[in-house]
Structure formats: C-alpha cells, structure tokens
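User: For documentation purposes, I need each entry recorded in a consistent format: the amino acid sequence on its own, followed directly by the corresponding structure tokens. There are two entries in this batch. Please keep commentary to a minimum and don't merge the entries.

Assistant: Recorded as requested. Entry 1:
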Amino acid sequence: MKVLFIGDIVGNVGRNAMKQVLPALKSKYHPDIIIANGENAAGGRGITGAIARDFFSWGVHGITMGNHTWDNKDIFEWIDDEPRLIRPANYAPEAPGLGYTIIKAGNKELGLINLQGRVFLPPIDCPFRKADEILDELKSKTKHILVDFHAEATSEKIAMGWYLDGRASVVVGTHTHVQTNDDTILPQGTAYLTDVGMVGSREGVLGMERKAVEYKFLTQMPSRFVADEGEWHFHAILTDLDDATGKAKSISKIRWVQEDLLML
C-alpha cells in the first residue's frame, strides 16, 4: 500500500499549490491513500469546513491537525460530523472531534493517529502514553498505522519515532515547516521523518510574510503574522507499506517548487 503524506498546508498559496500538484502526484506515484496536515490551511491558522471539503474533493482521504486546531471557530460546528479529519488525540477527553480514525479508500485501510508534542508547546496530556492507549485498540483492527506527531522539538519527535518503532507503520513529524533529511526505516520496520515540511510560500518565513516576522525579531513587539502570497514549494513523503505485515518497505521525500510543475 502506498501512502502519500503532505506537510502543513499554509494559507491560500498552499491551497492553490495543493489543487495544482495533486493531479500530477497521483499520476506519478499512484498513492492508495492521501493524508494532509491542514492546521494552517485557513490564512495560516486553523481550517474551515469549506477548505476541508475542497481537500476531500481533490482526492485527500484524511486530514490531521495540530496546535491551531481551534483557531477558526466554525470547526466546532462540524468537527464531530467529519470523521476524516482528526485533531491531536492528547487534548482533554472533553475536546470535540476524534484523535484517531481508520481511513478507508477502495480496499485499503489505514489507521491514522494525530498527537501533539509538549516541548515548547502548551502542556497537554502525554502523547507517549496516549499513543500506547490508541495503539492497543487500533492494532486489533489494522496492521497499517500512520502517526502525525505535531511537535516543535526534534528530540521529542525522534524519541517518539523510536518509541513507536515496530508498532506503527509510519511516524512523521509536522509543525516546524522545514523538511528534514533524516528519512529512514527504523530497525523494527517503522518509516520515520522528523518533519515532512510544508506546502505554501517559499518566499516568506515558514509560509508567513517575512517583513512582519523580521519586525518581531528586531523589536520584540507584537506583530500580526499573515500568510505570504509568494511562489510556493510543496513537501510530502511517500511510503510503501507491506500489505501482510504493515511494516514499511520504503520512504521517499518529495520536494517540488512551482517551476517543477511547468516541466511535467
């Protein structure tokens, strides 16, 4: 089973890139299941129901979130009715929505888990213990499990990869928006990458207008960050999972810039 996971989609530029790139990706790689992180999709902060519906109509099968899950208030109106979108499972039990699900596409199934780190992020429940709890349930239902660990610290992400080696098919990091170069298959068969990267403007700072970010660094004064409108770059990974065991057979990074699309 081939699984395509797309990094944090940021703002209008990221959404436009998704719409342009997905047909080419599907034609080139023939993924069975497509997952995307959408927590920055609406102007860099959160997601809306309309944006989620667009992603599904373009061929995305599941959406993961992160620390900006609740930034667009309309999410409270539909998250409980949309099982294909999940938020970090280690939020409090009272939080609406699901933290994990099983994505079905054709005759393929993928257990999908979203977790959020605690280092340099708000202190929520332990993602490691929550992973244990969810895996105990999901492993009886499917061999194929992908974990999106939305976290700031590389150490916390790497620790999670080792912690889940052999228990999840894929563990990928999101949130920091810069694709790392440590893609690997761990000894017990888990595909791992510290950060998948982002989909959005490559002319800003992590997808945001750079002038506002520079002002913040220079003055330490409040600055309103707005999603940048420059040319895009697109980051994702493709993993091939063994149908019988759920273990990863391969992991490949994908990095396209806007000009690449013109050459296809």
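Entry 2:
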Amino acid sequence: MSAREEILARIARAVAGAEDVEIPRDYRTEAATGDLVGLFAERVDDYRAVVHVLPAAEAAGLVAERVAGRRMIVPDGFDLAGHESWPDLHTADGVVTGCAVAVAVTGTIVLDHGPGQGTRAQTLVPDYHLCVVRAGQIVSSVPEAIARLDPSRPLTWISGPSATSDIELSRVEGVHGPRTLEVVIST
C-alpha cells in the first residue's frame, strides 16, 4: 500500500458512519467579463513580468526571437521549429512553455505539465521562463480555471516571477523559481 493509499484509508475509517452533509456550491464562479486578454495582461504586468499581446501570426516570430542564441529547454509537444532543446536543466538559460489555463483576475498561469508544458523541475529551475498563452486559454476566475483542470495532474500555479518578501519585507526575486517571467499572449 502506498503512502497515499494509506492516508486515504485512514481518512475513510475516520469518517465511516458519519452523516453526509450537503455543501452548498452556489458561490460566484465568474469574476470578470469583457476584455479578458487585456485584464490578464494588466495583472501579469502588475507582477513585474514582461508581457506581449500579439496576433497568433506574430507570436511565433517573437518566441523564436526570444529563444535565439539561448540554451533553452523546449518541452516535448512545444512546436518551436529550428530550435533544439537544451539537454541539461542546470546549465539552461531558460524554458519556453505553453500553459493549461490562465486566470484574468489574478494574472495567474497554470501548468498541468501536459504536452508543451515541461516538467515541474524544467519550469522552476531555470532563471528565465517564457510562457505562451493563447487567448482562448484565459478564463475570468479561479473557479473557472479549476473546472478546466484535471485534479489528478500535477499543477503549478504561476503569478509572476518568483519572489518573496519574507526577510525584513525586502523583495527578493528568483528564490523559488525563475527570476524572469515573460508572457506572450497569442490572440
């Protein structure tokens, strides 16, 4: 029995015979309407990320320009013609990925590490992360994002470059992930 199975079995035993309780699920699921792309771009910019909003035809060119001459990790499933993935995680200059979904009101990008999104390590170890978000992947709220995600997949929620203000309230970037986040929103 795995640790997960053991924990779930212990929980099942603890609640065995307990009365079922109905949990109301009538909370608001949509937070914004209108220009979700513009709101998402504004919120991502608030986090000190570099943001580009481009037509799909121009987005691929910008991505190619940004990765040129860099040792970039290109995950399986990310189409980047003419650029080979750098094989060593610890000497890579950065990673280029897509995403599973993005949240407009929070400026959050969610990776489920499916095709084109790389592994968790690939997205957290390099100092630079270039993420391509298609306009159709942007939803207004966190509940809408959760509804699109598979809860059995590993999820990484990114709200700007890695940063902390734990020590004397001084902002330090790059502690828990990439110091630089660049987002290309493809419309």
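Summary note for entry 2:
The mean pLDDT is 89.
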